[in-house]
Amino acid sequence: MKFEDLLSEINGFGRFQKMVLMINFFGRFSLACHFLLGNFIAVIPSHHCNISSLDADGILGNLSREERLAVSIPAQEDGTPASCHMFSYPQFQLLMNSSSSTELPVVECQNGWEYDNSTFISTLATQWDLVCDNRALSRLTTTIFFIGVMFGAAAYGSLSAMYGRKPMLLVSYISGMGFGLCSAFSSSFIMFAVLRFFTGFTITGSVIISTVLNVEWVSIEHRKLVGVIDSLSWTFAFMSFSLIAYFIRDWRWLTVSISLPTIIAIITWWWIPESARWLIANGKADKAYNYLHKCAVMNRKKEATARIKPEELAKIIVTGRGNRKYSYLDLIKTPKMRRLALLTGITWFSVATVAYGISFNISSFGLNMYLTQFVYGAIEIPAKSSIYYLLDKFGRRITQAVSLLLVGISLVINIFIPKDKTVVRTVIAVLGKGCSATSFGTVILYSSELYPTVLRQNGMGYNSFVARLGVSVAPLILLSDDIWSHFSQVILSSIALSAAFVAYQLPETRGRCLPETIEDVEGISNFIAAIPSHHCDISSLDAEGIFGNLSREQKLAASIPAQEDGTLASCHMFSYPQFHLWANSSSSTERPVVECQNGWEYDNSTFISTLATQWDLVCDNRGLNKAVATIFFVGVMFGAAFYGGMSDRFGRKPMLLVSYISGMAFALASVFSSSFIMFAVLRFFTGFTITGIVIVSSVLNVEWVDIQHRRLVCIIDSMAWAFGSTSLSLIAFCIRDWRWLTVAVTSPLLLCTVLWWWVPESARWLIANGKAERAHFYLHKCAVMNRKEEVISRLKPEALSIIITDQGKKNYSYLDLVRTPKMRRLAMLTGTVWFCVATITYGISLNITGFGLNMYLTQFVYGAIEVPSKLIVYYLLEKIGRRKTEAGAHLLAGISLMINIFIPKDQWIGRTVVAVLGKGFAVAAFSTIVLYSSELYPTVLRQNGMGYNSFLARLGVSVAPLVLLLDSFWGHFSQTILCSVAFVACLVAWQLPETRDKCLPETIEDVEGTRKNLIKHHGKQEDVEKPTEDH
Fold first, then answer.
1. Among 549, 1031, 930, which residue's Cα sits nearest to residue 720?
2. Relative orientation angle of helices 223-247 and 15-27, to the nearest 10 degrees
3. What is the DSSP letter of 809?
4. How far is CA 126 from CA 45, 107, 113, 243, 824, in A?
5. How far apart are CA 542 and CA 555, in angstroms?
6. What span, in angstroms and rounded, lies between the C-alpha atoms of 295 and 20?
């Protein structure tokens, strides 16, 4: 008998189940409201400087309020007062005429701000002046909350699988309400941010536990109905929240009002049952019988449990491991569970990112925010109600995939609709929001049906963790609209369309019993260099057919010794068959063995082909497999030095083409290698040639943008790595043959080669090398495309030569990096930082077993982690500057590595959280140093400088695998070295000069502070000393 059969006998959707469903429905009210609290309390109302300091002596007299503002605060283009600046002294002449105020002397607000309180009595912004330079902090609280939710999901998923659903649900209710109420009485922004983190951490348990409880107590035919009702609890809370927020305009009281309803949930918790499935799976059949009896009595099916004894329940979920404690590691220990975890994780991340990316953008309707919030909630009613029909008619998989596909299509359509078409855009946005609600409602039920009972709570915790990572990323994606107004829509639509494909790979669960054990699910250079499971080829032992009609298992048992975990040895076989071993359980460890005599047989379930299977790089030769990565990076190291010098001598554009073509050629040639030696040589030259792409393109990007956009360009540039890392995991998941995988990741270079024709040469490099006419040509093209043709028409080619230098014919080399004092110091400091940051970053990245996940998911997570890290860098570079960002990132990375030294290795969750943070800080340091270095070096040596730094970085990358080998001496040796390197880099980075808002240096003299420059002043050329900059 299965558990579903027992549920049917006692009524799988009777009064008992309805009671549980209703209690959980209202129990998550506070959670849903907290999820959207930031939409109201983090709002920044209209504001302007407090002008009381200008009227200290009463000089503004009897002027009206409007007149006082007119003479005290500059007007913006739309006529409203500026938010962050005021005049340094009253400009009374503005009352007499309409002359522009844009050129009058202004200063930042000197005495705080005055806020428009017509909509809100109080928000975080008005409470702690989170405006102007600090405006990002207001929205940052949302990300902080969801980071807490993310880690809380992982914690509650594991703890509720270990200690039960019911006790952890109470912990979530009490602690969530406690932290929520405490946050309302915060005395500082830091205190509020910390309490919001813990509110998110603790309150998230209520949703992942109650969802699983609902599913585990209902029969098969009612699961979809429960899934729909369950998801409608969010809709009810979202709509109610808009009304609550409308009447309560003070952020403190609003927070209190949505936290207090949890008291009702705490009271009704006493009527919540523990999961009978969980109790049986954990060897607590007596207690499970008590709850089943209560269920039967309430459902008026008392006679059903009278026929069953408690001891018979243990046979329903046969695990043989009643006392075993399951953990997140069990999600990836078996092939099908690994695949399931990867697919559901990607789907949850995508669904959450898209759904909240739409929900947080509440200004898109053109309605006021309260009405928008209400409409967003109302949209979900028909969307989620339709799930009830769709899940039964088409099944879970098709519903999930198609809803994501429609979300992506809706977002794509809105990209092409003009923004003045408000009605049409609103209709499409409503459809997209509805489809995203459908996908979210489906994935919750779908996932709870896919995971077995013994791992269901861990699985839901893991999925919720990944989903909250997506929610945390969503606000940062919306910030990308500052780059291009449709940028966030492009990103969100791409995520939705990709998720539709991934969701379609999941198995269908419609009409099927819930899996109870892992066995029910199984049915019992990180990629091409992977070593699959293998054992000796035993054909040599059966040369005379002595095995006869033995089964494959019996042949292996008689031919290959078993290891301690019961699996077959990888590198040894018996010298002659041991037939008695499969007949009895005697040990095989003392039998005569020899090394494999006739090659190996490989497990091709994960990989069709790898380097190891191609050339038998296992056992004594397994080191050659990983040596491929080192060989490649040694090539990258020398290639960086080569391309740095060559692109400074022959130009950025031609060397970029050389890198594209030669990199693609060597990579494709390596696919057809006939031996390992040939492959290793070609990988070296692939690394040597392809590295020019990154160092040349990075410099080109920086040299073509103005000061205020350099940090933005840097972040977008570094996002290419995050995109590549996450995409690689998906490509590798679909292509399991190393040759075709190499072709797949190389082919995009063909498109790059075609697009190269539209890449301009660096105008800075052309001018610095005496090619002013060519520079004028590219500047003219730039002006025409940017609709600023009149600017370049006033400038003649010969006038460009005095902008940078009169030494256009000189060829610079790496020796110029050390010929002058400040250049020597700069080269030493940046070289040290680059070496350190590369060693740390790749020391963490190459240790892909730190997550305890399968390699595809690990690669995806490592890439996903970079997204929020790099977006935060965008804010920090402007807020605190390059130097502090670089040094601070190294310091925090070092602290993270040091903390992990003291965390026991069996504390997997804690070590994973700290490792994720360390990776994020290392990525932030790497992103910063790329921009920082390109701003420090002068144009005439910039490419040489970047080449030299890249050389040292690749040296650090080559050293990183060797550092990890030191763990064989002491388990924390590599962590100790890496954290020491991080602290050294922090100190060195602090010695570098700040470059924020400074012009790029053009010559060595600019760095040394000795250059004289000819400038134009009122139509005449004057010889003036250029101010010395501390380079």
1. 930
2. 30
3. T
4. 8, 21, 9, 22, 49
5. 9
6. 11
Judge whether 331 and 415 are in contact, CB under 8 Å: no
CA 18 remoteness from chain centre? 39
pLDDT of 845 strictly over 80: no
Instruction: Provide the pLDDT for residue 314.
Output: 64
Quote the tokens at residue 662: 């030669």
Chain centroid to CA 426: 29
At 502, list the tokens: 């991934």
Q: How many CA atoms lie within 13 Å of 948's alpha carbon, on the beta-carbon side?
A: 25
Cβ–Cβ < 8 Å for 407, 354:
yes
What is the DSSP secondary-structure string of 631-683?
HHHHHHHHHHHHHHHHHHHH-HHHHHHHHHHHHHHHHHHHHT-SSHHHHHHHH
In the block, residue with structure tokens 């040589």: 681
Q: Give the whole-angstrom CA distance, residue 868 versus residue 864.
A: 8
As given in the structure block, the two tokens for residue 532 are: 């699959």
C-alpha distance from residue 198 to each of 37, 150, 394 (Å): 15, 11, 40
Is 217 in contact with 276 (CB distance < 8 Å)? yes
User: Residue 699 — φ and ψ, nearest 5°?
Assistant: -70, -40
At 924, the amino acid letter reads A
Look at residue 801 and tell me whether its pLDDT is greater than 70: no
C-beta neighbour count of 998 within 10 angstroms:
15
Which of these, 101, 126, 124, 102, lies nearest to 50 by C-alpha position? Answer: 126
Q: Which long-range contacts (CB under 8 A, 24 or more apart) does 246-250 make?
A: 246/370, 249/119, 249/120, 249/121, 249/122, 250/120, 250/121, 250/122
Q: Is the pLDDT of residue 1 over 60?
A: no
Q: How far apart are CA 509 and CA 514, in angstroms?
A: 8
Beta strands in 102-261 (DSSP E): 106-108, 113-115
Alpha helices in 360-486 (DSSP H): 369-393, 396-416, 422-450, 453-478
Q: Which of 359, 340, 348 is nearest to 467 (CA)?
A: 348
Q: pTM of the entire structure?
A: 0.50
**What Å distances lie between residue 339 and 142, 503, 507, 861, CA to CA?**
32, 12, 11, 15
**Of the candidate ranges 654-663, 676-685, 865-874, the one whose mean pLDDT is the lowest:** 865-874
pLDDT at 857: 58
- Supply 183's token pair: 């946050």
- Give Cβ neighbours of residue 701 (< 8 Å, ≥ 6 apart): 713, 714, 717
The one-letter code for the residue type at 219 is S
Reference 422, options 342, 363, 353, 462; nearest CA is 363
How far CA 416 is from CA of 361, 364, 412, 689, 969, in Å, comes to 18, 15, 7, 39, 60
